[in-house]
Amino acid sequence: MIPRTKKGVFTENDLMMYFALIVKHLRLMVLLVCFSLLLGLTYYTYARPLYYAVSEISYDSLSRTVDTQLAFKDSRERFVRSKLASAYIKERTAERLGIKATAREIERKYIRKMTVRFTPQNTIRVEVFAYSYDLARDWAETTLQQFLLDREEKRRSRADMTVKTFSKEMEEMQERMDQIFNSKYDLRTSNDLTKITIELNHYKGIRKDLLIVTNKLGMMERTRQILDSQSFDTMGKLSVLSALEKELDPSLNIGQILQQDNGSFGGSETESSSSSVVIVPGMVQSPNRQSWEKLDLERRQKKREHDDLARTFLPKHPKMVVVIKQLEQIERALDLELEVAFNRLESNYATLAAKMRELEATLPAYHDVMRRYEKAMQAYKSFDSGQLAWSKLHADMEKRLNVLDFAEDKDRDVLKYLGYSESLRNNPVSPHRAKLAIYSLLFGFALAIAVPFLLEFLDSRISDLEDAEESLHLRGLGIVPQIESSGSDSQLFVGENASDHYFQENFRVIRANLGMNSETGALPQVIIVTSAMPQEGKTVVSSNLALSFATKGDRTLLIDADLRRGRLHRVFKAQNKPGLSDILAEKRPIEDAFRPGGHENLTLVTCGKHVDFACELLDGPSFAALLGDLRKKYDRIIIDTPPVLGLAETSIIQRLADGVVFVIWGGFTPMRNVKSAIQSLEMNGTKFLGFVLNRLDFHALGNRYKYFYYAPNYYYNYRALEAPSSLAEK
Question: What's the predicted TM-score (pTM) here?
Answer without folding.
Answer: 0.49
